[in-house]
Specification:
Layout (H helix, E strand, L loop, with lengths): L3 H17 L17 E7 L11 H7 L3 E6 L5 E7 L13 H18 L3 E7 L5 E6 L2 H13 L12 H11 L5 E6 L7 H11 L1 E8 L1 H4 L6 E5 L6 E5 L3 H25 L3 E5 L4 H16 L1
Parallel strand pairs: 3-4, 3-6, 6-7, 7-10
Antiparallel strand pairs: 1-2, 4-5, 8-9
Length: 295
């Protein structure tokens, strides 16, 4: 009998993977030239180049900045950093944030694996991180899916997600240069910006921010119970109170602005994936935006 992960992957292969096959490689064509390991020569520095590849000895000798140029690696190691914290349980049944995260993880693992790349996963909640070592096969994608299913419904136990620790854990796992795809709603604590900057200095990093309407909109329903998605703390509020609605909107805007600014300072592209969005369309848009950024 097929497992839940097998049934989900079959559906995604039919609806999403076939539409995206061959397009996803653009996701890691970034502005960083020379991320491979075989040195091929030197060229003059131009605006937008990665200053980390400047050959300072040649630059001093010629009195003009020059870059070391490498051949690109044909194969890629991809790490999926999967936020399994309590806030990811938000959303309607069957289409909450954790459901979309599971679909994204399976699609990415399958597509990158089909291209011969090795895909690993870090599942992070408020407990001990769970690691699936890199692999390439369809069975390996199913292993990631099974691990996600095993952690569905995990609650935070009153402790908010430490985003910094999640990113630092990814940095400890990815020893060689890799593509790190962070799938999260980015709701949590910790000085995550410094951790993201450290991660981005060594690896290509792409953030997929999974968002549900409940994250952004306060329903007009009179007295409602509002629960902190991370800690479980509850509070009764009047959702029709105009002042409360203004304050809620301001808090959402401030949160989004902080996130965008932190990602921009780290040089990491962040792509919003709404839970009600068609998954294939969302990923095509991610690839297109990443290609535009790297051109």
């Amino acid at each position: 009998m097929a497992t839940a992960a097998e049934k989900l992957l079959l559906r995604l292969e039919w609806k999403v993977v076939r539409r995206l096959d061959g397009r996803l490689q653009g996701m890691h064509r970034t502005a960083h030239r020379g991320s491979g390991i075989d040195f091929t020569g030197l060229r003059a520095y131009s605006d937008g180049d990665d200053a980390r590849h400047i050959d300072w000895n040649v630059t001093a000798r010629l009195d003009e900045p020059h870059l070391r140029v490498f051949t690109e690696d044909r194969e890629l190691t991809v790490w999926l950093v999967l936020d399994r914290s309590a806030s990811m349980a938000a959303g309607r049944p069957g289409r909450g944030k954790h459901d979309v995260l599971a679909e994204l993880a399976l699609v990415l693992a399958r597509l990158f694996g089909r291209g011969g790349n090795r895909v690993g996963a870090l599942l992070f909640d408020t407990g001990k991180p769970r690691v699936v070592p890199p692999g390439t096969s369809r069975r390996h994608a199913l292993r990631i899916g099974a691990e996600l299913a095993r952690t569905t419904g995990v609650r935070g136990g009153g402790v908010t997600t430490d985003l910094a620790e999640m990113l630092d854990a990814a940095g400890r796992l990815a020893r060689r240069r890799a593509l790190v795809v962070v799938l999260s709603d980015f709701i949590g604590d910790g000085d995550w910006e410094r951790s993201l900057q450290r991660l981005a200095r060594r690896h290509e990093v792409v953030a997929l921010r999974i968002v549900d309407t409940a994250d952004d909109v306060l329903p007009e329903a009179g007295l409602i119970v509002v629960e902190d998605a991370e800690t479980g703390e509850q509070l009764v509020v009047d959702s029709a109170d105009p002042l409360l609605r203004v304050r809620f909107r301001a808090a959402v805007d401030a949160r989004d602005a902080r996130l965008a600014a932190g990602m921009r300072r780290a040089g990491v592209p962040v792509h919003r994936v709404d839970t009600d969005r068609d998954l294939a369309e969302a990923l095509v848009e991610v690839v297109a935006r990443t290609r535009d950024r790297s051109s």
